[in-house]
Amino acid sequence: MTESRPTLGVGMVGYAFMGRVHSQAWRNVASVFDLPVRPAMAALSGRSPGATAEAADKLGWAAVETDWKRLVERDDVQIVDICTPGDSHAEIAIAALAAGKHVLCEKPLANTVAEAEAMAAAAKEAAARGVRSMVAFNYRRVPAVALARRFVEEGRLGEIRHVRAQYLQDWIVDPEFPLVWRLQKDKAGSGALGDIGAHIIDTAQFIVGRSLTGVSALTETFIKERPLAEGSSGLAAEGGAGEMGEVTVDDAALFIGRFDGGALASFEATRFATGRKNALRIEVNGSLGSLSFDFEAMNELWFHDHTIDSAEQGFRRILVTEPDHPYAGAWWPPGHGLGYEHTFVHEAKDFLEAIAAGTDPAPSFEDGLRVQRVLAAVEQSAAEGSRFTTVEDS
Amino acid sequence: MTESRPTLGVGMVGYAFMGRVHSQAWRNVASVFDLPVRPAMAALSGRSPGATAEAADKLGWAAVETDWKRLVERDDVQIVDICTPGDSHAEIAIAALAAGKHVLCEKPLANTVAEAEAMAAAAKEAAARGVRSMVAFNYRRVPAVALARRFVEEGRLGEIRHVRAQYLQDWIVDPEFPLVWRLQKDKAGSGALGDIGAHIIDTAQFIVGRSLTGVSALTETFIKERPLAEGSSGLAAEGGAGEMGEVTVDDAALFIGRFDGGALASFEATRFATGRKNALRIEVNGSLGSLSFDFEAMNELWFHDHTIDSAEQGFRRILVTEPDHPYAGAWWPPGHGLGYEHTFVHEAKDFLEAIAAGTDPAPSFEDGLRVQRVLAAVEQSAAEGSRFTTVEDS
Amino acid sequence: MTESRPTLGVGMVGYAFMGRVHSQAWRNVASVFDLPVRPAMAALSGRSPGATAEAADKLGWAAVETDWKRLVERDDVQIVDICTPGDSHAEIAIAALAAGKHVLCEKPLANTVAEAEAMAAAAKEAAARGVRSMVAFNYRRVPAVALARRFVEEGRLGEIRHVRAQYLQDWIVDPEFPLVWRLQKDKAGSGALGDIGAHIIDTAQFIVGRSLTGVSALTETFIKERPLAEGSSGLAAEGGAGEMGEVTVDDAALFIGRFDGGALASFEATRFATGRKNALRIEVNGSLGSLSFDFEAMNELWFHDHTIDSAEQGFRRILVTEPDHPYAGAWWPPGHGLGYEHTFVHEAKDFLEAIAAGTDPAPSFEDGLRVQRVLAAVEQSAAEGSRFTTVEDS
Amino acid sequence: MTESRPTLGVGMVGYAFMGRVHSQAWRNVASVFDLPVRPAMAALSGRSPGATAEAADKLGWAAVETDWKRLVERDDVQIVDICTPGDSHAEIAIAALAAGKHVLCEKPLANTVAEAEAMAAAAKEAAARGVRSMVAFNYRRVPAVALARRFVEEGRLGEIRHVRAQYLQDWIVDPEFPLVWRLQKDKAGSGALGDIGAHIIDTAQFIVGRSLTGVSALTETFIKERPLAEGSSGLAAEGGAGEMGEVTVDDAALFIGRFDGGALASFEATRFATGRKNALRIEVNGSLGSLSFDFEAMNELWFHDHTIDSAEQGFRRILVTEPDHPYAGAWWPPGHGLGYEHTFVHEAKDFLEAIAAGTDPAPSFEDGLRVQRVLAAVEQSAAEGSRFTTVEDS
């Protein structure tokens, strides 16, 4: 078989949860979408040679590196895909951009505003050289979320009054759940706030096309200590049997706030909402209509049109699987829903198309920095008696 | 027909929306429940003789008064039911209690903490004389809400972590909607906050059996001016054609906060949630389970039991119409749902039973005062840059 | 108080479940709707003097009769409301009509086609004398069902292709549930078929404005014998402890069929759908749109408009509580839902208005006969190997 | 990279909708599941050389054949995957089995009972030689459906009383939709009946572990003639502009029936349910519990447990994404749902594992034949006045 279209080699750093999902995306994107350029799964980087080779074999990567710096240097790598915890994002991304590699970086962009600023600056400088970068806020690429954005953009909601967003999970409700890296500030930056709160901040700002300008916040760590993981479990804190370690991040973060343009915000991110597994929920109320979304039913967008005859108004369950819905036409017939990983396929598609077109993809590192600044304002407000705290200008 | 059971005469003040619903309750309660004492719809009080007579005729009241003071004095009135706007609650309730009449008072208990304190003091004093009082937070008497309370009381939810409550309406989204009394601070005390925010505060505190101890809040008035109503429309501000008046209350109020016992709170009350008609929603997450309720589907309680086999966990849609559900057994067979007004029938039942039993019904004026103090803390926080504000001890 | 409007005395026969609900309707209808004529709850008839007096006292009836024939003769009774089992409908209704009394008769109209024919003939003859009659298919008066009818009438669904209707209950799943009158053919005529199947037949025919022309059916009795009730339990078959009696009616009835106009029908009535309490569900698919309804969420009508832009199509959850929805405007504000009994209030309203206007109310006894003929065709088809059986012309 | 595990070469016939989905499965299965044997996408067969090469390039097939007979003969092909219309299934499958190739065949197994019988016989003979075959009823592999089967198998539903199944689509509601191959009896065998009716028959029989023993049916073709497709559109009937052709299959098929074991069945398959896109719905009621599923919300299984305290009963929305749910553990964390194509990945996994284990996978060709016999009984009943028709013994 001859492939007429050009390919771009991808090098991925990290092969845990995010690495698995990104692999799925690179493996499938060219079979679903008609792309101007196709990805080649060139190399996977991880610290443990054996585990990395095993992952590469299973996930479909052609080669293995045990040092991300070598990965970045490879000639067959034109795209660096960063799937590591947040503490390493800045170093890898800045190095890759400096080496002229396009960079796709998992969220949150970084663990601190300072790192995120450095990354955004590097991205800006790289863009001038035609090197592209994108932060992986994948939920923008849920077809229902993209459709929500379209409705707002078309003015279907009128003036936005309310944005209420929740990201509810329950995977650490059990106090015996161990002290994994996501519960350690030095690795993860923050807890529910940065992990899932970042997602609803970005997704909400994307949908309404507005930025949060100030917040008043509360955070809480319900379980102060957790068991250390026994033995060598990679990123989890290790310890002997029965040893406990301090949880150094938030279990839950809540804030209210304001968007430019006048809308009110009510946000909540928690890993203690028993029974809610991945409930990323956003509701937007405008003067002409409303939207509601819950990722646990990700193929549905609920839309209320306030301009039609009141006797027939009601929230519509739009099954976002029609050919004229964002991304959906490339997949299966109407009603044949998509799953979580498809958002990453869409991300890969948009990133590759932007590279081919020579344009800057979104969300940019600048967008990632903007989210980081909201996270910082939330933490500052929570630390200062919940006082209303302005989000620093980007 | 001979009626063997004693009756208590009811005198009601006000016959607008609340008066109509309360009438429905008094008219039906004895036909649904087996009561130790039955109500007699003795007299209705209103300022306009004609309109009051017409209302009494339609709603089933035996007599009419045009001065509530006369109503309170009537010998055939043992219960005074106050259905007027909040600015008159304190005066009427205190007078009625002083006259030895049991008092059922619409919510919010009053427009200010000072008034509410005076009322609570009067109620306490009256209780010592065997005179009962209750504030009409009717949503406690939705069978699903009462069942939610039962589950929490039985420990089914474990330690409560999160309470998120919203009361969403949309009836003033249109800027042409006139300046009715509910939009005027001197009549209504506050806007969405006191009208519907008060409901979710009471209902949430009732369900979890805990009190809000502090809040951080934002309020907003989206539409600053509205048309004055033309001509004599009773409680609406009057004016000539085209004249505008200032909206002096909030359109929306949001707060985050803490409950005693450690739960986090996220609350929102708004009249600008387009498409949401009467969405009083409460979700509670505990260490052992969760509950979710939306008044727009008032016969359903959603319950997640986190203690059973994880493969069969899920939020259950409990249709709260079984004989062993609160209040439901007196009505129709399973699946034959109830409506809004039934909550008032249950209220009347519980009030009458408490009077007959010589016990103090709940929610008491003290409970109403507690809600008032939360409302005051919300307003204070909103006025002071959202800083965390402690709810004054009751 | 003077009542300027005329009243009509109501005499009701039977005070079990249906009698309680009808009482609720007569007690409230004039307080909710502005009626040209008001009902007076004149007399209640039942066989047991004590129990009837107790029921009358509780439900609000002014007098008591122990023989329905006396009730029919009373001068203060202008309306006879028949709430007895089906085996007595014909005799009472025909006598009442002969006595010049307007008749409201519970469904199914009768236990046999022959009885129903006699009743329809009597009603026709009485109508010529200005005496009105109506069969109490209350589900037509659910606001959501009436709105569904309006949508079909306005052509919003285009050509009707499919009607699928289910009435699912589960109250006799337990084999220890006793042999009540509803499980005895001589009292009830049939089982699920006549009790709840009759409802979906009428409701579906009402919504689509078409009649079932032929059916192919299956019926089944899962539990062949049940315990006799001990002692004197009124209408239940009595017996000693441990005695069993034969169930002589169907537990479930299913049929497929055709409507005039070309739509296909799929119907199912059962009392063995574990977990379904009162799930009267109807879905209608037309060339231009679809409707879906489930009585367990009775304030909602789901409507799909197939004529709008496909990217924003979806079933809308219309909360049928708006002022411009059928019946809803007389009750509470939007979002303050109604319950089961309200359908009977609407029935009473429409019946009283028709009497006052001198018009024939619907559904007529002729409509009831039409349903009876469908029931008969179902039974005949089931008895003859499910062969397609034409519904006899009315 | 060295691959330590053995591979099996796959040759696929057809690359339209089913071919695209099957390709997705072969491409991903080994990256998601730990398999004893991995598939190699060896060759794709299609009639048009150019289009087939293009499809192979996009979908990831290593080679191309334009004659399926050559594909079957290839040494690098050990598995033949048949994704063509039903009229060619028998010939290809029988040839492939004869050549010692394992066969995965799309459903319905064949267009006639005779063909299906020949295929089942060939499969039986091949199985004796260690050659495996499976019919691709993919919906068995929805995790929620597999969980439903588990619940029934564990006795959680008790005695099954009712199975109601619907498969509702709307893609040919428009009379201008052209006469594609699925609307032609010679290509497709039947219409909605064989295409989607076959799915609910298999899925329902799989869940309850019982077989349909007899049916009473109706079928209908609402639109008798449709436009011929212009020009060469592969499988669509061709014709000049404006030419019409006869629709020779059913648009909708309904039947009621009985399962061995005593349950009643109510089934409906239609392409005219406006607004329903891919609503494969199954509800099962048993003496101890009930299950409900709708593919439009494919990650949810609703389960009612009738054995627990009645005050807390209710249908649970089980999000079937937990590690202890069928197939789900290999994918993403809880709440990160799957999509349509994943059912095919699971199918590929089970097929490969069965081959490796030397066992016969399910559903077998015999299972496919059983479905075919139900389809035949439905058609016969519909042709003979809906009389109850016994399903021929397999």
UniProtKB/TrEMBL annotation, chains A, B, C, D:
InterPro entries: Gfo/Idh/MocA-like_OxRdtase_N (IPR000683), Gfo/Idh/MocA_oxidrdct_glycsds (IPR050463), GFO_IDH_MocA-like_dom (IPR055170), NAD(P)-bd_dom_sf (IPR036291). Residues 147-291 form the GFO/IDH/MocA-like oxidoreductase domain. SUPFAM superfamilies: Glyceraldehyde-3-phosphate dehydrogenase-like, C-terminal domain, NAD(P)-binding Rossmann-fold domains. It comes from Microbispora bryophytorum. One of its GO terms (molecular function) is oxidoreductase activity. The keyword Transmembrane helix does not apply. This is Oxidoreductase. Gene3D superfamilies: Dihydrodipicolinate Reductase, domain 2 (3.30.360.10), NAD(P)-binding Rossmann-like Domain (3.40.50.720). The lineage of its organism: Bacteria, Bacillati, Actinomycetota, Actinomycetes, Streptosporangiales. The keyword Ribosomal protein does not apply. Residues 9-128 form the Gfo/Idh/MocA-like oxidoreductase N-terminal domain. Keywords: Oxidoreductase.
